[in-house]
Amino acid sequence: MISKLDLNIDPKALGKVAVLMGGDSSEREVSLTMSGPGVLAALLHGGVDAHAFNPAERGLHELKAEGFDRCFIALHGRHGEDGTVQGALELLGIPYTGSGVMASSIAMDKIMTKRLWLADGLATPRYVKLKKDQISRERCMAIPDELGLPIFVKPPHEGSTIGISKVMGYSQMQDAVQLAAQYDDEILCEEFIDGPELTCPILGEGDQAFALPVMQIEAEGGNYDYQNKYFTSTTRYSTGTLSEEKEAEVRALVLAAYQSLGCRGWGRGDVMLRKSDNKPFLLEMNTSPGMTSHSLVPMSAKAAGISYEQLCLWLLSQARLDGKA
């Protein structure tokens, strides 16, 4: 796996680098205190002229004024991985890590992502979309009849399980929808797929993109929520849990999902493996994954023989603008 990456990177050739962290999304704490500092420390240790930069405290125009040559985006959530900061960097002419404007915007919208995947014949759970003016009790009570129970109710433009509820009965629907509506103007009601939760990182672009090892997630009580993602040590992560054939199938599915959205640089696809027939279903694509001690991409990369520092340096070396190699 490591042979697929050119790790002979001259840190001095990367220029002056801003590690964008913090921001103003609901996930800013993780970015500011965990992902961002981790990336910054790795780049500095690797000999890069890297500096922390919080867009919530400083205007992005200062990046140009201060002579930054490229940016490592360690922001999560809105205004970080939804195409907005990418668009600003495009206007400034400063190359950045990860997907471009359109792919970032689409991947941040779980409903639009599903539409594209379904159009390309990729399996994803059935869903119902609601708008805020459609959340009457009668409409909410009808959704379990359409999708069955349990149901996941989500704000489709948030990440890290923010505002998500697992609905076990009709009486919980209204509260779940109201919670999601606090974070978004739309609500995604999604069929529950019963089985193991998997995730698979992708590195690269186009035909050169490839999948890292698939990881299985086992959270305490089966609830891989915000707390279990970032702030507990009880969640178990493992590779090598699938047969060779199923591992290859999941990797191929996530790679196709990544390419379907036009992603580049890196990403991480989340998958549920239905235990009744062992069929994988795509949940979402993360275009600015976490880089914390609990994060899945670094753990999968490590299983492939790629260190955290090597991963950060390689991602930074791939920074570019839309339409430019």
Automatic annotation (TrEMBL):
Keywords: ATP-binding, Cell shape, Cell wall biogenesis/degradation, Cytoplasm, Ligase, Nucleotide-binding, Peptidoglycan synthesis. Gene3D superfamilies: 3.40.50.20, ATP-grasp fold, A domain, ATP-grasp fold, B domain. Coiled coil: none annotated. GO terms for molecular function: ligase activity. Cell wall formation. Belongs to the D-alanine--D-alanine ligase family. This is D-alanine--D-alanine ligase. It comes from Roseateles albus. The gene is ddl.
